[in-house]
Amino acid sequence: MMQAAQMTAGVTSAATAEQPVAVVENPGGRSPILLICEHASKHLPARYGTLGLGPVELESHIAWDPGALGVAMELSRLLDAPLIHASVSRLVLDLNRDPSAPDSIWTLSERTTIPGNLDLDAAERAYRVREVYHPFHDAIDAFADARKAAGQLSAVVSIHSFTPVYRDVPRPWQIGLIFNRDERYARSVEAGLKKDPALVVGMNEPYSPADRVFHTLERHAEKRGLPPLMIEIRNDLIRTEEGQASWANRLAPLLREGARTL
Prior knowledge:
- It is built from 6 helices and 12 strands.
- By secondary structure, it is α/β, with parallel strands linked by helices.
- The strands form 3 sheets. It has an 8-stranded mixed beta sheet, sandwiched between helices. Strands 5-6 form a two-stranded antiparallel sheet. Strands 8-9 form a two-stranded antiparallel sheet.
- Helix 4 (184-193) crosses helix 6.
- The radius of gyration is 17 Å and the shape is globular.
- Mean pLDDT is 94; it is low at 1-5 and 7-12.
């Protein structure tokens, strides 16, 4: 897949060392849609080692959302939309959680204990919030404010993936649309997806705002009066570039048309 123009945002913190937490793709994109991918990366900065996990766990869905960044990058290209994604694994800090929430730093994910996150003191938690959470979300704030002031922002969409089986329970959906009070964008995309009778579309499945997964969109869409939409795609469908491109091509016209009607 083609790579969009890229810039970095925020500062390179001691927590990340190697690169900024927030990476902006296609910053000059003409689309009024802002794409976000919080769980894009499985990267652990050197400071954290492996957090006591093995290679299998570090490649699994507990570390990132497999395939989500590939879909988001292709959507950015197809829509000519800016995309902001994270360069740090959610094992360090989950950027889609309120930083004061206990599960902003996971100690148990599904059935896997994260040894390096056990018994953290207040100073370490504050360090991760300062060095990971704030650079990422402050970069989105600055970018979104500038786009809105220029009349170039009408919706915010976050891209995620989910595991087909969670705690031994199969998940039947191929895609889920997560929404809160403003349902307009989600319902528009739902209508387009359901034209394919083979698709099983979850509405507020496999998660909903009640699961505290709407933090990014609350902060960056709802507080600006913009329609939010969180898209969850089952990760076995987007493990390959072909799968990622297929889903991006399916979603791009629906997102484009939905944004026109907002």
